[in-house]
Amino acid sequence: MTLDAWLRNKVGWLLAPLFLGNGLAVAVAGPWAVSAQSLPQSALQIFLLLLVGTALAVQLSLSGAALARLRTFRGLVSGRLPVTREHRLAALGELRQLPSRMTGLSLTGWLGGGALLGVGMVTLGGASWDTAARLLVAGALFGSLGTVLSSLLLTARAHEASDHLSEGLAPHDVIAAAPGADWSVRSRTVALTVLLTVVPVLLLADVAWLALGRAPTELALVAPGLRQAAADALFSSLALRLAGLGLLSVAFAVITAAAAAQTIAGPLQRLAAEARRVASGDLEAPRVIAADGEVWRVTAVFGQLHERLAGLVHKVLEAGTHVRTATDSLQRTSVRSEATAAEQGAALNQTSATTEELARSARQIAGSAGAVHELARRTLEAAQEGQHDAAAFQAAVDRMKQDNRSIAGAVDRLQRRVQQIGRIVELINAVADRSDLLALSAELEGTRAGEVGRGFALVGAEMRRLAENVLESTAEVEELIAEIRDATVRTAEATERGSHLTERGTALADEVTSSLLRVTELAEETSNQVRTITLATQQQQSGSDQLAEAMGEILAGTQAELDTTGRLAEVNLRLVGLSSSLQTAVGRFTGARGAGSNPK
Amino acid sequence: MADVHGHLVFACGSSLYAVPADTASEVVNLPSLTRVPGAPGHLLGVFAHRGEVLPVVDLTRLTGHPLDEVFKRAVVVRTPRGAVALPASRVLGVATLEGSFERLGDTGVHQHLRGPARAAAGEVAIIDTQTFIEFLSTAG
Amino acid sequence: MTDVQAEVIEGLVLCRVGEDRLAVRAREISSFDVPHAGARYAGEGFSPQARAPAEARLLRHHDTALVVDTVEVHSERLTLLSVPAVLVRAWGGALCGFVEAGGLLWPVISLERFAQGPEVVS
Prior knowledge:
The complex is a heterotrimer. Chain A has eleven helices and no strands. Chain A is mainly α. The longest helix of chain A has 156 residues, at 293-448. By secondary structure, chain B is mainly beta. Chain B contains two helices and eleven strands. The relative contact order of chain B is 0.24. Chain C has one domain (8-116). Chain C has a five-stranded mixed sheet. A four-stranded mixed sheet of chain C has the order 3-5-6-4. Chains in contact: A-B, B-C. Chain A binds chain B through residues 433, 437, 440-441, 443-444, 447-448, 450, 457, 461, 464, and chain B through 5-6, 8, 21-22, 24-29, 73, 91, 93-94.
């Protein structure tokens, strides 16, 4: 149940004991007044009316005074004030002071009410001032009884309300704001016992005293013979009244004693429950059990103890967490460090191997450089020989070029001659053709002349055959000319190509000569470079050997470092184990946070 | 039938023809020809020769076996009805022919061809020059 | 050979028709003109599919008209060579003879007959 829900309509509940205790006292006072028979029969009704009226007036006044002293509490109950820590502490203070304040007011009310009742009886009921004085005394006696009972009941309720209000508040705040009343249980119990025994005795004695005081007068009115019987009757009546009043007193005393016991036993029971909770490991929300006297001292100390224990356990847990975090971090670092060291070792191993390889390579280079030197020398010789050969080649190419030129000239002349022959053949052809035609015509003419022309025709035919022979021969000559022409064209083309090739050959020979010259230069340069390289390689070789040696030393150092890192990791691991154990041990306590750090 | 005066034998394409030597006036080299409007297909054109215009008659077209040959020579045939030049692939010369001198057909140019006569080079068709030129004058 | 008294022509119009040639007596032509639809093209005499070029000329004489490609007037005296027997009926007898001019042989035609077409036989 939340505090808000519990607070609802709790003002009436808190103040109800005020009516209950005082009401019971009034209820006892009524029979006492009737049985005392100190009032005239006619005034008894007025007395009862005045008694009820006075009692109501006093109760209302007390209620008003109580409400006036519970301003903050009422504000929280009605919801007018927010449930803050300050308001709760203020309401707690009000509740703690309420029982003692109300005790004094209640006593005053009883005395005032008694006096008022006495004056009322004198003026309205025609009672004597003696009677008024007796009523004042009676008010004081009954008032003390009623006040004690209502005070006890009010204390019990105030404690209960305080327990609800103080829930979740820091115990030291509650103790400072609302300390319990400081009194001794023993003295209080004695005082209560005295009150509960002495007051009834006095009241009973008063009843008996009055009855016995009136007895002679009443007996004198009775016939002497009947006096004994009348006296018996009087004593019987007195005995019955005393017995009734006694029973009432005992009942009242029992109720009051029970209420008194509750004011002590209630807090102790709640304290026992708290103690059980703490014992089970639940340190959450330490609280102060509201109580008074020696019991308060115990509950206050327990509350503070609880609070400090919770704070302590929280700090231990926090420390444990820090230790765990730190060790975790340390472990990770250690692992990383180990890995890095291993990598470094591997890298160094590799570097060492590379260095050795380098040293080997350097030796090989030194060997190779020698070979290159020899090679360069041979290249130089070959290139010089090549230069001589290239010069010879160029001379040959030049001769070829000259030959080519003379061939081209001859071919050209030949072509011209062939053309001339062609023209002559054409002319011969034309002549032969014409001769053929003429011969044909002559043959025809001869034929037409008959016998006379026969010889002419024969000559014509012979001429024709001659012409045809010439034509056949010229056809052959033409074919030969065509062949010669083709051949000369091909020769011309070939000499042209040859000319191109010799040109290209000359160019190539030039290139070869210049290339060989360059090769000679390069070979000389190479030879020089190789000498330099050989020198440098020898130096590098000794340097590489030294480097390999140094790398071996570094490798040994790294291995040692790696071993150290491994040991550090082991220690870290143990530390992590210890931290875990600590956390497990403290973790048994649940809700262990700083006192008052988690108000509800 | 005896060949009295002899014949001029010439080849035109793969065929051999002969004209009587007395009507064959001469053999000429063919110059470039002038075409004549409205002339029939076998009449290739005309050329001037010794102040005379000679028509050139293609025997291959006339016999229905046209050749695309460019002729270099022609045999000039002359009759009282006119003169024509007959293009020849080759002129073989004057020869005395033997064999048949009958008409080779009854229609067209064939009725003006006789044979087959024999020459050294093979069978020859003899052109009846008198009727041949007349036929040319009347045929479109 | 038989035609002993050879005719002499003075004034001739030499015409080109495609790759061929024609000649017309100058006195047979009244005017030259641009061709009009319906006038006969001389090229038809050489090839039935022949068509006159764009820059053709029209030879006119009264109602007679003939289209040729180009014309050139030749005023020298020329001997008219006779028509061979095998060509007398060519183009309805429109051929009058031949002349040699500029080293070339030209067929001389009668404009009127030629324009009438090849079918007319006189």
